[in-house]
């Protein structure tokens, strides 16, 4: 939100506390929280994505300066007459000193990330991103009075990619986007299509994870993988080479993706490419080894 002027106002009697005043642009619909109370209707996905991307570009600049906002809540985001959202109220924003994280000593408790509510001592850029994800969920649901849960996101009437974005914001802190720039890249990449696929020619020596339902019993699939020389693991890590993707599971968080596939995206952002193969391709590779 644009600020046009600032000044200190001191009462003439000298007995009252001086006030620091800002002159900012007029935002017709007020803050998003109040707007959604008066108009509890979900925004179209395309409009919500557009506004969250605009917001991410602004927060990316904040993060690049070494600061975190700590209060990106519906009461601090404002809605213009053209339904553009603008971030305001930098009252508790703080710059990092050296390599030390900003202390989690000022925030809105009801909108804070789970890690902060559980006692985390530092406020990271990822925590700002968590709040942006909650704002995205508020726009898509028309509900800005409370946080949205991961279970609720599964049932949102939006694209699988958008559900994946939301899960990467509001899930486990270590698996979430680490900055606004990461989230922005992921959202904009969704418009360009999938990443280039990695070709797998052998399972030998590869660290492999299964996800989704298989026609083959999971135990039998693990045996085949081990016979082919693969190292079978239960979760995706920075050492994982291959993920075998079965059918969609009711436990998946974003229609086309469960936590393991969301973790694959996270690893890709860290520069670690993991190959995704179908069950049929896995069986062909396993048989070729025998």
Word description of this protein:
Helix content is 37%, strand content 15%. It is an alpha/beta fold and 290 residues long. The chain folds into 2 domains: 27-192, Transferase(Phosphotransferase) domain 1 (Transferase(Phosphotransferase), domain 1, Orthogonal Bundle), CATH 1.10.510.10; 207-289, 3-Layer(aba) Sandwich (Rossmann fold), CATH 3.40.50.10190. The strands form 5 sheets. Strands 10-9-11-12 form a 4-stranded parallel beta sheet, sandwiched between helices. It has a two-stranded antiparallel ribbon with strand order 1-2. A hairpin with a 5-residue loop joins strand 4 (77-79) and strand 5 (85-87). The longest helix is centred in the N-terminal third of the chain and has 20 residues, at 45-64. The chain is elongated. The mean pLDDT is 88.
The major beta sheet can be summarized as: 4 strands, parallel
What spatial order of strands do you see in the largest sheet?
10-9-11-12
Provide the domain count: 2
Mean pLDDT: 88
Strand content: 5-15%
Helix content: 25-40%
What is the number of strand segments?
12
CATH class of the largest domain: Mainly Alpha
Span between termini: 64 Å
Number of helices: 10
* CATH superfamily membership of the largest domain: Transferase(Phosphotransferase) domain 1
């Amino acid at each position: 939100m644009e600020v046009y002027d600032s000044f200190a106002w001191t009462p003439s009697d000298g007995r009252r506390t001086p006030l620091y005043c800002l002159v900012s642009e007029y935002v017709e619909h007020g803050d998003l929280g109040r707007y959604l109370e008066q108009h509890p209707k979900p925004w179209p996905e395309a409009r919500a994505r557009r506004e969250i991307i605009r917001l991410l570009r602004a927060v990316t600049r904040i993060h690049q300066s070494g600061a975190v906002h700590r209060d990106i809540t519906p009461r601090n985001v404002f809605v213009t007459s053209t339904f553009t959202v603008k971030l305001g109220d930098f009252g508790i924003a703080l710059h990092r000193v050296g390599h030390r994280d900003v202390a989690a000593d000022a925030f809105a408790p009801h909108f804070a990330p789970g890690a902060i509510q559980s006692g985390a001592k530092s406020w990271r850029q990822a925590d700002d991103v968590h709040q942006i994800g909650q704002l995205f969920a508020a726009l898509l649901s028309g509900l800005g009075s409370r946080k949205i849960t991961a279970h609720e996101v599964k049932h949102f009437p939006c694209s699988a990619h958008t559900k994946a974005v939301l899960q990467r914001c509001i899930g486990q802190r270590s698996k979430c986007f680490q900055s606004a720039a990461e989230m922005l890249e992921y959202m904009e990449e969704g418009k360009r299509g999938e990443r280039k696929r990695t070709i797998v020619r052998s399972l030998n020596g590869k660290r492999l994870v299964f996800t989704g339902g298989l026609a083959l019993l999971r135990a039998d699939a693990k045996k085949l993988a081990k016979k082919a020389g693969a190292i079978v693991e239960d979760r995706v890590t920075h050492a994982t080479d291959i993920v075998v993707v079965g059918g969609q599971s009711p436990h998946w968080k974003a229609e086309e993706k469960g936590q393991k596939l969301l973790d694959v995206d996270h690893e890709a952002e860290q520069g670690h490419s993991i190959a995704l193969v179908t069950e049929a391709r896995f069986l062909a590779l396993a048989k070729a080894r025998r």
